[in-house]
Amino acid sequence: MPQITDQNNIKTKPIILLDRDGVINYDSDAYIKSVDEWQPLPGSIKAIAALSKAGFRVFVVTNQSGIARGYYDEAELLAMHQKMMALVEAEGGTIEGIEYCPHGPDDGCSCRKPLPGMIESIESKINADFTQTQAIMVGDSKRDLEAGHARGCHPALVLTGKGRDSQYKEFNFYFDVYADLAAFALATLHKFA
Question: What is the residue range of 20's domain?
Fold first, then answer.
Protein backbone atom coordinates (compact mmCIF):
# COMPACT_ATOMS: atom_id res chain seq x y z
CA MET A 1 0.00 0.00 0.00
CA PRO A 2 1.55 3.34 -0.98
CA GLN A 3 2.26 5.78 1.81
CA ILE A 4 0.14 8.92 1.70
CA THR A 5 1.39 12.05 3.44
CA ASP A 6 -0.29 15.31 4.31
CA GLN A 7 1.03 18.82 3.53
CA ASN A 8 3.50 18.57 6.46
CA ASN A 9 4.88 15.29 5.06
CA ILE A 10 3.36 13.33 7.96
CA LYS A 11 2.08 9.87 7.07
CA THR A 12 -1.71 9.84 7.12
CA LYS A 13 -3.26 6.95 8.97
CA PRO A 14 -5.70 4.70 7.14
CA ILE A 15 -9.19 4.00 8.43
CA ILE A 16 -9.26 0.51 10.01
CA LEU A 17 -12.27 -1.73 9.32
CA LEU A 18 -12.48 -4.93 11.32
CA ASP A 19 -14.63 -7.99 10.89
CA ARG A 20 -15.85 -9.19 14.29
CA ASP A 21 -16.24 -12.97 14.68
CA GLY A 22 -12.91 -14.73 14.19
CA VAL A 23 -10.97 -11.44 14.21
CA ILE A 24 -11.88 -9.74 17.49
CA ASN A 25 -13.63 -12.59 19.28
CA TYR A 26 -13.77 -16.37 19.08
CA ASP A 27 -16.07 -17.63 16.34
CA SER A 28 -18.33 -20.66 16.38
CA ASP A 29 -20.05 -22.65 13.63
CA ALA A 30 -23.02 -22.65 16.01
CA TYR A 31 -22.92 -18.80 16.09
CA ILE A 32 -22.09 -16.47 18.96
CA LYS A 33 -25.57 -16.11 20.44
CA SER A 34 -25.11 -14.33 23.78
CA VAL A 35 -22.97 -11.89 25.72
CA ASP A 36 -21.52 -14.83 27.69
CA GLU A 37 -20.51 -16.62 24.47
CA TRP A 38 -18.83 -13.46 23.18
CA GLN A 39 -15.19 -13.88 24.26
CA PRO A 40 -12.31 -11.83 22.86
CA LEU A 41 -9.36 -13.49 21.16
CA PRO A 42 -6.05 -13.06 23.02
CA GLY A 43 -4.55 -9.66 22.31
CA SER A 44 -7.44 -8.37 20.19
CA ILE A 45 -8.80 -5.80 22.65
CA LYS A 46 -5.35 -4.35 23.39
CA ALA A 47 -4.69 -4.26 19.63
CA ILE A 48 -7.82 -2.21 18.93
CA ALA A 49 -7.04 0.12 21.84
CA ALA A 50 -3.43 0.59 20.67
CA LEU A 51 -4.57 1.48 17.14
CA SER A 52 -7.19 3.88 18.48
CA LYS A 53 -4.77 5.55 20.91
CA ALA A 54 -2.29 6.02 18.04
CA GLY A 55 -4.88 8.01 16.08
CA PHE A 56 -6.39 5.34 13.82
CA ARG A 57 -10.16 5.48 13.37
CA VAL A 58 -11.47 1.96 14.02
CA PHE A 59 -14.79 0.56 12.81
CA VAL A 60 -16.35 -2.91 13.00
CA VAL A 61 -18.15 -4.38 9.97
CA THR A 62 -19.92 -7.66 10.73
CA ASN A 63 -22.41 -10.06 9.13
CA GLN A 64 -24.88 -11.19 11.81
CA SER A 65 -27.22 -13.60 10.03
CA GLY A 66 -27.92 -15.25 13.39
CA ILE A 67 -30.56 -12.53 13.82
CA ALA A 68 -32.37 -13.55 10.60
CA ARG A 69 -32.00 -17.19 11.64
CA GLY A 70 -33.65 -16.48 15.03
CA TYR A 71 -30.62 -17.48 17.14
CA TYR A 72 -30.53 -14.13 18.95
CA ASP A 73 -32.14 -10.71 18.60
CA GLU A 74 -30.80 -7.21 18.03
CA ALA A 75 -30.96 -6.44 21.77
CA GLU A 76 -28.58 -9.35 22.47
CA LEU A 77 -26.31 -8.21 19.63
CA LEU A 78 -26.26 -4.70 21.11
CA ALA A 79 -25.29 -6.17 24.49
CA MET A 80 -22.40 -8.06 22.84
CA HIS A 81 -21.24 -4.87 21.17
CA GLN A 82 -21.52 -2.90 24.41
CA LYS A 83 -19.29 -5.52 26.07
CA MET A 84 -16.75 -5.28 23.24
CA MET A 85 -16.69 -1.48 23.33
CA ALA A 86 -16.42 -1.39 27.13
CA LEU A 87 -13.41 -3.73 27.02
CA VAL A 88 -11.71 -1.51 24.44
CA GLU A 89 -12.54 1.63 26.42
CA ALA A 90 -11.11 0.03 29.59
CA GLU A 91 -7.80 -0.20 27.67
CA GLY A 92 -8.03 3.47 26.70
CA GLY A 93 -9.27 2.99 23.14
CA THR A 94 -12.40 3.63 21.11
CA ILE A 95 -14.35 1.82 18.42
CA GLU A 96 -15.79 4.70 16.43
CA GLY A 97 -18.67 2.77 14.90
CA ILE A 98 -20.19 -0.64 14.27
CA GLU A 99 -22.08 -1.65 11.15
CA TYR A 100 -23.87 -4.99 11.09
CA CYS A 101 -25.97 -6.88 8.59
CA PRO A 102 -28.87 -8.73 10.29
CA HIS A 103 -29.95 -10.46 7.07
CA GLY A 104 -29.63 -14.04 5.94
CA PRO A 105 -27.69 -15.10 2.86
CA ASP A 106 -30.84 -15.35 0.73
CA ASP A 107 -32.45 -12.05 1.80
CA GLY A 108 -31.10 -10.09 -1.19
CA CYS A 109 -29.75 -7.19 0.87
CA SER A 110 -26.88 -4.92 -0.22
CA CYS A 111 -25.14 -4.94 3.15
CA ARG A 112 -24.13 -8.56 3.64
CA LYS A 113 -20.45 -9.13 2.88
CA PRO A 114 -19.03 -9.78 0.28
CA LEU A 115 -21.22 -6.86 -0.86
CA PRO A 116 -19.84 -3.50 0.30
CA GLY A 117 -23.03 -1.91 1.70
CA MET A 118 -21.81 -1.67 5.31
CA ILE A 119 -18.53 -0.13 4.19
CA GLU A 120 -20.42 2.36 2.01
CA SER A 121 -22.49 3.26 5.09
CA ILE A 122 -19.30 4.08 7.02
CA GLU A 123 -18.00 6.13 4.09
CA SER A 124 -21.26 8.10 4.09
CA LYS A 125 -21.19 8.68 7.87
CA ILE A 126 -17.60 9.97 7.91
CA ASN A 127 -17.79 11.70 4.51
CA ALA A 128 -15.01 9.59 2.97
CA ASP A 129 -14.45 7.65 -0.22
CA PHE A 130 -12.18 4.67 0.37
CA THR A 131 -11.10 4.72 -3.27
CA GLN A 132 -9.54 8.11 -2.36
CA THR A 133 -8.96 7.79 1.41
CA GLN A 134 -6.70 5.01 2.71
CA ALA A 135 -8.57 2.22 4.48
CA ILE A 136 -7.69 -1.33 5.49
CA MET A 137 -10.29 -4.12 5.77
CA VAL A 138 -9.17 -6.81 8.22
CA GLY A 139 -11.03 -10.11 8.12
CA ASP A 140 -10.73 -13.86 8.48
CA SER A 141 -12.80 -14.80 5.41
CA LYS A 142 -12.69 -14.27 1.68
CA ARG A 143 -15.97 -12.34 1.77
CA ASP A 144 -14.53 -9.84 4.29
CA LEU A 145 -11.62 -9.08 1.98
CA GLU A 146 -13.86 -8.99 -1.11
CA ALA A 147 -16.15 -6.42 0.51
CA GLY A 148 -13.19 -4.21 1.38
CA HIS A 149 -11.54 -4.65 -2.01
CA ALA A 150 -14.81 -3.65 -3.73
CA ARG A 151 -14.58 -0.24 -2.02
CA GLY A 152 -10.85 0.32 -2.53
CA CYS A 153 -9.75 -0.83 0.93
CA HIS A 154 -6.43 -2.63 1.28
CA PRO A 155 -7.32 -6.21 2.36
CA ALA A 156 -5.62 -7.91 5.31
CA LEU A 157 -6.31 -11.51 6.35
CA VAL A 158 -5.79 -12.74 9.90
CA LEU A 159 -5.23 -16.45 10.46
CA THR A 160 -7.58 -16.64 13.46
CA GLY A 161 -11.19 -17.74 13.02
CA LYS A 162 -11.63 -19.04 9.47
CA GLY A 163 -8.42 -17.38 8.30
CA ARG A 164 -6.27 -20.50 8.01
CA ASP A 165 -8.77 -21.99 5.56
CA SER A 166 -9.46 -18.69 3.79
CA GLN A 167 -5.81 -18.07 2.90
CA TYR A 168 -5.88 -20.93 0.40
CA LYS A 169 -9.02 -19.82 -1.44
CA GLU A 170 -8.68 -18.29 -4.86
CA PHE A 171 -8.38 -14.50 -4.79
CA ASN A 172 -7.97 -12.17 -7.76
CA PHE A 173 -6.28 -9.44 -5.71
CA TYR A 174 -3.33 -9.09 -3.34
CA PHE A 175 -3.80 -9.15 0.44
CA ASP A 176 -1.53 -9.10 3.47
CA VAL A 177 -1.56 -11.97 5.98
CA TYR A 178 -1.08 -11.67 9.76
CA ALA A 179 -1.15 -14.29 12.51
CA ASP A 180 -3.83 -12.37 14.40
CA LEU A 181 -5.19 -8.88 15.08
CA ALA A 182 -2.33 -8.14 17.50
CA ALA A 183 0.24 -8.88 14.77
CA PHE A 184 -1.69 -6.67 12.33
CA ALA A 185 -1.81 -3.85 14.87
CA LEU A 186 1.91 -4.07 15.63
CA ALA A 187 2.85 -3.98 11.92
CA THR A 188 0.40 -1.14 11.23
CA LEU A 189 1.56 0.95 14.18
CA HIS A 190 5.15 0.53 13.00
CA LYS A 191 4.34 1.30 9.36
CA PHE A 192 2.45 4.50 10.08
CA ALA A 193 4.52 5.75 13.05
Answer: 15-191
